[in-house]
């Protein structure tokens, strides 16, 4: 298994982050990873967790409701 | 252009027949256009055109009524329209009233079936000409009519691949901003918000309120979808309304709306009507949902509360694995470092144990050996005792014989000693000086009783005892001459 990068791709999505995190945890739970791979996976996992937590945080600050017509008016305002 | 074929027989409603429609009066003074028959008087041409149009087949048309005008005049006007085109319609008021339709029913946006044929009002010197489809029978379109029309449109759009592009768009499971097209204050809006609340989602919703049923619905919904994708930076668009008849939902079968949705670069989730109602937008959209609640779950694929818990668990797993990876190996290394000492310790303990066992074994061995020796000694002693007893018994048994032998031997020895003593006595007597004295010899003894062996000894003693047989007599040497 390739250990992958220890840094999170900034362009990744929540889905991709969670999918990769599940792969990492499955690999860690298998107890087949060596020390270096384990440390690299943990580093990558922490990055993914931070990213995913940020995504969840972004949709957990309270519902915001906007109206399209008001947005367009604002955009079209001189 | 080929001017010689402009008047095509069978297509031109007004045959270029000078006899049937002679050129305008005073033709000799007019000049036509080379290659074009005529010029004919326009009024006559218009009249011939009406005749030709009225000979078109009588048909029934289905479409959406728009621009309905039911005024005080003798005609009711409206247009029949669909996505491909429109045709003006006119209906005599008497015919309209005979249909039993109210002005409310023939409203803008109503799907109707109109039967009649082409007609043309040629106008006059002061009135404008007008083409119209003269409607003689009119009824609201039934579900069967709409479903048949829907099926045709569905086949057409499917053949053009309009249903495919949205399916190729990735649908984000956790969008931050969602656009929603629905009617303001609708139950669908409330259900959608409840679904999002159950998901634990608290992002941004951009509401694009639009009519969802009348003739304005399809254009408004189309514009809303287009504007949401263009201006609102949404990651998903939900188009929804509650259930209804197919006529009520007809706006969501609008061809323009469907084509707009197909070309929208943002995934569209449709939740129109109920599960049994399948509009064309359901076919075009990336995801088709049966209810607004279902649409909320499709728009936010992640249960945010559960995801937060799962993420916390994942963080714990990653942290514990990270710590364990080092700690376990550190413990292993420490154990490895202790291994030689432990190994020596084990061997030392083993040696001590062996030594103890050896000592114990030696003691046991000595005890066993001693016991063995005791048993051997006991056996030997017993055998010796037995043998001694047997010997003693034999000796006892032999004792009388030996006593007898000893007695015989004693007697014989006594006899031999007696014989020897007799011999010794005889020999002694033979050497006894008395016997010599008896034979006449005398023995000179000095005053100490010692014999005087030489004449000089006698002379020097001078006085001496002379022992003879029968006694001693004192004597004195008289002659001092030397013996010759």
Write the layout of secondary structure elements.
The complex is a heterodimer of chains A (78) and B (484).
Chain A: H1 14-29, H2 35-58, E1 60-67, H3 68-76
Chain B: H1 42-54, E1 59-70, E2 75-82, E3 85-92, H2 93-99, E4 111-121, E5 130-140, H3 143-160, E6 177-182, H4 187-199, E7 202-209, H5 217-231, E8 236-241, H6 255-263, E9 268-272, H7 280-284, E10 287-288, H8 292-299, H9 304-430, H10 433-438, E11 443-445, H11 455-461, E12 463-468, E13 471-476
Parallel strand pairs in B: 3-5, 6-7, 6-8, 8-9, 9-10
Antiparallel strand pairs in B: 1-2, 1-4, 2-3, 4-5, 11-12, 12-13
Order of SSEs of chain A? HHEH
Uncertain residue segments of chain A: 1-8
Count, helices of chain A:
3
How much helical structure, as a percent, in the residues of chain A? 55-70%
State the CATH class of the domain at 150-300 in chain B. Alpha Beta
Main sheet properties of chain A: none
Query: How would a crystallographer describe the biggest sheet of chain B?
Result: 5 strands, mixed, barrel
Q: What's the average pLDDT of chain A? A: 83
Describe the protein's architecture and organization.
The complex is a heterodimer of chains A (about 80) and B (about 475). Chain A has about 80 residues and is mainly alpha-helical. Chain A has one domain (about 15-75). Helices cover about 65% and strands about 10% of the residues of chain A. Chain A is built from three helices and one strand; from the N terminus they run H-H-E-H. In chain A, helix 1 packs antiparallel against helix 2 (about 35-60). Chain A is rod-shaped. Residues about 1-10 of chain A have low confidence and may be disordered. Chain B has helices at about 40-55, 95-100, 145-160, 185-200, 215-230, 255-265, 280-285, 290-300, 305-430, 435-440, 455-460; strands at about 60-70, 75-80, 85-90, 110-120, 130-140, 175-180, 200-210, 235-240, 270, 285-290, 445, 465-470, 470-475. In chain B, strand 4 (about 110-120) and strand 5 (about 130-140) form a beta hairpin. Among the domains of chain B are: about 35-140, OB fold (Dihydrolipoamide Acetyltransferase, E2P), CATH 2.40.50.140; about 150-300, Rossmann fold; about 300-330; about 435-475, no CATH class. In chain B, the strands form three sheets. Chain B has a five-stranded mixed beta barrel with strand order 1-2-3-5-4. The termini of chain B are far apart. Helix content of chain B is about 45%, strand content about 20%. Chain B is α/β, with parallel strands linked by helices. The interface of A and B includes residues 13, 18, 53 and 65 of A.
């Amino acid at each position: 298994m390739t250990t992958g990068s220890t840094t999170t791709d900034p362009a990744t999505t929540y889905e991709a982050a969670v999918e990769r995190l599940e792969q990492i945890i499955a690999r860690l739970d298998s107890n087949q990873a060596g020390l270096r791979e384990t440390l690299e996976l943990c580093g990558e996992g922490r990055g993914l967790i931070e990213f995913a937590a940020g995504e969840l945080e972004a949709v957990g600050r309270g519902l915001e409701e906007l109206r399209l017509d008001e947005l367009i008016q604002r955009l079209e305002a001189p | 252009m080929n001017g010689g074929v402009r008047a095509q027989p069978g297509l031109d409603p007004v045959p270029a027949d000078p006899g049937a429609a002679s050129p305008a009066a005073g033709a000799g003074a007019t000049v036509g256009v080379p290659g074009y028959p005529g010029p004919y008087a326009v009024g006559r041409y218009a009249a011939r055109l009406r005749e030709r149009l009225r000979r078109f087949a009588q048909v029934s048309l289905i479409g959406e009524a728009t621009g309905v005008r039911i005024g005080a005049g003798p005609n009711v006007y409206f247009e029949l329209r669909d996505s491909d085109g429109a045709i003006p319609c006119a209906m005599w008021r008497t015919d309209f009233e005979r249909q039993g339709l109210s002005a409310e029913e023939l409203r803008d946006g109503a799907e109707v079936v109109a039967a009649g044929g082409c007609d043309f009002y040629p106008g006059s010197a002061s009135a404008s000409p007008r083409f119209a489809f003269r409607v003689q029978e009119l009824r609201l379109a039934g579900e069967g009519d709409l479903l048949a029309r829907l099926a045709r449109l569905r086949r057409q759009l499917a053949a053009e691949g309009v249903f495919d592009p949205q399916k190729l768009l990735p649908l984000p499971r956790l969008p931050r901003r969602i656009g929603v097209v629905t009617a303001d204050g609708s139950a669908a809006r409330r259900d959608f918000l409840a679904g999002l609340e159950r998901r634990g989602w608290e992002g941004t919703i951009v509401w694009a309120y639009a009519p969802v049923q009348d003739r304005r619905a399809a254009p408004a919904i189309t514009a809303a979808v287009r504007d949401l994708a263009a201006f609102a930076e949404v990651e998903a668009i939900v188009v929804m309304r509650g259930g209804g008849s197919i006529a009520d939902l007809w706006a969501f079968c609008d061809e323009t709306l469907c084509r707009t949705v197909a070309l929208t670069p943002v995934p569209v989730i449709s939740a129109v009507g109920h599960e049994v109602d399948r509009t064309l937008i359901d076919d075009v959209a990336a995801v088709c949902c049966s209810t607004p609640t279902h649409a909320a779950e499709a728009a936010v694929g992640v249960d945010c509360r559960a995801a937060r818990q799962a993420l916390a668990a994942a963080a714990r797993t990653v942290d514990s694995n990270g710590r364990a990876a080092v700690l376990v190996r550190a413990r292993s290394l420490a154990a490895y470092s202790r291994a030689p000492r432990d190994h020596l310790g084990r061997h030392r303990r083993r040696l001590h144990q062996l030594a103890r066992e050896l000592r114990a074994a030696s003691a046991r061995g000595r005890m066993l050996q001693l016991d063995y020796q005791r048993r051997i000694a006991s056996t030997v002693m017993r055998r010796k005792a037995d043998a001694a007893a047997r010997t003693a018994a034999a000796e006892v048994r032999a004792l009388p014989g030996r006593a007898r032998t000893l007695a015989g031997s004693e007697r014989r020895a006594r006899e031999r000693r007696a014989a020897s003593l007799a011999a010794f006595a005889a020999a002694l007597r033979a050497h006894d000086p008395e016997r010599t004295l008896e034979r006449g010899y005398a023995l000179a003894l000095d005053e100490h009783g010692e014999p005087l062996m030489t004449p000089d000894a006698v002379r020097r003693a001078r006085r001496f005892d002379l022992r003879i047989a029968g006694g001693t007599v004192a004597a004195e040497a008289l002659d001092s001459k030397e013996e010759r």
